[in-house]
Amino acid sequence: MSKIPLSVLLFLFGNLLSSSVVHAIVNVTGNKTQYFKAGSDRNSGKDCDRGWPHCKQPITAQRSSLLPVEAEVLIFEDLRLSVVYPVIQKFKSIISSDPQGITKTWVGSDICNYKGFYCDNPPDNKSATAVASIDFNGFQLGAPSLEGFLDQLPDIAVFHANSNKFAGTISTNIAKLPYLYELDVSNNRLSGPFPTAVVGLNSLTFLDLRFNFFTGSVPPRLFAQDFDFLLINNNNLMQNLPDSLSSTHILYLTLANNKFSGSIPVGIVEALSSLTEVLLVNNSLSGCLPYELGSLDEAVVFDAGNNRLTGPLPFSLACLKKVEQLNFAGNLLYGMVPEMSLPSHVDLYSNALHVYLY
Ligand SMILES: *[C@@H]1O[C@H](CO)[C@@H](O)[C@H](O)[C@H]1NC(C)=O
Ligand SMILES: *[C@@H]1O[C@H](CO)[C@@H](O)[C@H](O)[C@H]1NC(C)=O
Ligand SMILES: *[C@@H]1O[C@H](CO)[C@@H](O)[C@H](O)[C@H]1NC(C)=O
Ligand SMILES: *[C@@H]1O[C@H](CO)[C@@H](O)[C@H](O)[C@H]1NC(C)=O
């Protein structure tokens, strides 16, 4: 066990500022999205673990046997593509900005080769071809709404639209999308109440609504849903955190930069035993730190800075084996710092903590 002289704490505080959290998928201060999954590299574009869509390879239309057709007649490789064609064209007609010329490719029947669209064989019919995934990340497209588009793509499994200028609200009709398992609309201009339709989308494991203007409260049942990633930081959400967070294998939970209030739920532990990264920074959380925090066995980052937390640091924090970044700066904590082998980044700055040397 190391003793913690005050000078070391200050020294570490300096370190924290200059270090980067390489394992994290979430960079709360940045607003781009990088996809990683524990143990695999999401950036490789391979995402075969769910079986659908298969590794996100665009499917090239096979039409060699087709007879020559008149220019106006569109021949689709599959009925499902003909169904989404008008949906896509309607969306194209409301696109208000497209600095990269993306929608110029959204022409004709070969939807699987439109920029940003990926096809695959849907789970309910292995011989069919459908739009399985959309990746608009960084396209900077503008549109007044996603309504009538996202919710009208019946086979969509992955929708990524980080860093665009999509406005409006999220349609309640997304509740009818049976295969949707990744929804990323982070860093857009979406507003309105929290899209409660995501509650009960049982296939959804990745929800990223960061950097938008969603307001009001989050349905408590959201925290009981089976997400791997629940990223809702930098919105205008406000409510007391529910007493129980009963999601069983959530890895990343980011509520930072909202107006969440109330205490950190005691139930956070049995519920969130696999939590790797928890960002609660910049909210209005109050009350004492629960002793149970010390049982977050997998936690690498726990950031509850800039809240109104009070009381002492629980001695159980010394049990956090994997933690690399622990931030309680900007709270009203007092008392003594538990004797612990220091994680690499402990930030207790601007509290009234006294360090006792043994
Ligand atoms: C997070 O994003 C900000 C702004 O884009 C960037 O300056 C910073 O280096 C990023 N931090 C990490 C750890 O990637
Ligand atoms: C967030 O993204 C916008 C563009 O979408 C950019 O102008 C802004 O600087 C970004 N902010 C941060 C903190 O990275
Ligand atoms: C599966 O899809 C193929 C290709 O679109 C179609 O011909 C076939 O009728 C479909 N099967 C069923 C059971 O819907
Ligand atoms: C917390 O809020 C402050 C003040 O608005 C801001 O400077 C800081 O970047 C925020 N921290 C994070 C991690 O977003």
Automatic annotation (TrEMBL):
Keywords attached to this entry: Leucine-rich repeat, Repeat, Secreted, Signal
Origin: domain of life: Eukaryota
Localization per Swiss-Prot or TrEMBL: Secreted
Cellular component, GO annotation: extracellular region
InterPro entries in the cross-refs: Leu-rich_rpt, LRR_extensin-like_regulator
Pfam families recorded: LRR_1 (PF00560)
UniProt signal peptide: 1-24
Entry keyword annotation includes Transferase: no
Name this protein carries in UniProt: Leucine-rich repeat-containing N-terminal plant-type domain-containing protein
